[in-house]
Design brief:
Belongs to the DNA mismatch repair MutL/HexB family. This is DNA mismatch repair protein MutL. The chain is built from nine helices and 16 strands. With 344 residues, it is α+β, with helices and mostly antiparallel strands. Strands 1, 2, 3, 4, 5, 6, 7, 8 and 9 form a nine-stranded mixed β-sheet that branches. Strand 8 and strand 9 form a beta hairpin. Helix 1 packs across helix 4, helix 2 runs parallel beside helix 6 and helix 8 packs parallel to helix 9. The chain starts with 13 loop residues before the first helix and ends in a 12-residue tail after the last helix. 36% of the residues are buried. It binds adenosine-5'-diphosphate (ADP) and magnesium ion. Magnesium ion binds next to helix 2.
Length: 344
């Protein structure tokens, strides 16, 4: 519009700021699930139960037995840029938790109707708050066990455009299952369950062997094809499994990479994986693998992407060649001749 004269600059109200921020991180129900699961893990939970209805749009409910929150901390949890995970300003450069931006709950609360019930260890009772579109409605005490239960209803009820972009409940549920899979694979010692309506989809007991958790998601076809990987140098540690070429896939979605406990997607590392299987897979086929990498936090910047799916390495060439070499050496010392997925 053609407006003459100086424009009015307006400082946006916090609810609007949070809705805008939510646009970056909270794209769909699965983003909510990812953030809530990460918070439960950061809270030291040993058990996390998730229930979804209507593809997560109607309702997402998560319950954990983590450290919980006290009554006076609870409103801070849904305040933007408020976090318990950066105790001082230097901690940003060696983040040891999955979260640290202090934005997820504030963002989710601004685009949904949320109820949080929480009780911290040593507290005589729990407390509850209800938030509707970012506004805290009714704080008060409640009876609940130590830990936290968060319910998110009617996602995007006040941002109709965003709501329109959502796909069918089945598609949204598929994304939720993927987010759940990533977190449950990254934390095999935690008991996770997932219910869709009144139907139980997963009940995953804590595991000692990672292969058992992998099997509970992908079955014996995958678990019987796992080739253990275990390699460590002064900076990069790589453990987990590469799969037999016979269980290759038509896309690279079954390449699960975890860096310091966080699921990541990284083009360069996916390329390194493809290269390490060179000659063992037909064109257009992609390897399946489950790899956990550990590196000193100062070698990684997780601050690049709001959803933290992408990371930046201070020395990406080194990480690339370490992964490639590790797998190549492993394959050299393994009899792969019977494993080559050759056409019959
Ligand atoms: P971040 O995880 O980046 O700190 P969030 O908005 O996700 O930001 O959460 C804000 C704060 O709320 C966390 O720092 C944590 O102190 C608290 N919190 C959130 N979820 C839980 C939970 N399940 N158990 C205990 N505390 C939680
Ligand atoms: Mg968080």
């Amino acid at each position: 519009p053609q407006i003459k004269g100086p424009r009015i600059i307006r400082q946006l109200p916090p609810q609007l700021v949070n809705q805008i921020a939510a646009g970056e991180v909270i794209e769909r129900p699965a983003s909510v699930v990812k953030e809530l699961l990460e918070n439960s893990i950061d809270a030291g939970a040993t058990r996390v139960d998730l229930t979804i209805d209507g593809g997560g749009v109607e309702r997402i409910r998560i319950s954990d037995d983590g450290c919980g929150m006290t009554a006076e901390q609870l409103p801070l949890a849904v305040t933007s840029h408020a976090t318990s995970k950066l105790p001082d300003d230097d901690s940003l450069f060696h983040v040891g938790t999955l979260g640290f931006r202090g934005e997820a709950l504030a963002s989710i609360a601004s685009v949904s109707q949320m109820t949080i019930r929480s009780r911290a260890e040593g507290e005589p009772s729990g407390s509850q708050i209800d938030i509707r579109g970012g506004i805290i409605e009714s704080p008060g005490p409640c009876g609940c066990p130590v830990g936290t239960t968060i319910e998110v209803r009617n996602l995007f009820f006040n941002t109709p455009v965003r709501r329109k972009f959502l796909k069918t409940p089945q598609t949204e549920r598929g994304h939720i299952v993927e987010a759940f899979t990533r977190l449950a694979l990254a934390n095999p010692k935690v008991h996770f369950s997932l219910r869709n309506g009144d139907k139980e989809m997963f009940d995953l007991l804590p595991t000692v062997r990672w292969a058992d958790r992998i099997e509970s998601f992908f079955g014996t076809e995958i678990s019987e094809s796992l080739i253990p990987i275990d390699s460590e140098d002064s900076q990069v540690k790589i453990t987990g499994y590469a799969c037999d070429p016979s269980v290759s896939r038509g896309n690279n979605r079954m390449q699960y990479l975890f860096l310091n406990g966080r699921h990541i997607r990284d083009r360069a590392l996916q390329h390194a994986l493809g290269e390490s299987y060179r000659g063992m897979l037909m064109v257009g086929r992609h390897p399946v693998c489950f790899l956990r990498m550990t590196m000193p936090p100062e070698m990684i910047d997780v601050n690049v992407h709001p959803a933290k799916l992408e990371v930046r390495f201070t020395d990406s060439g080194r990480v690339y060649s370490r992964l490639l070499q590790t797998l190549r050496q492993r394959f050299l010392s393994t009899d792969m001749t019977h494993r080559v997925g050759s056409p019959e």
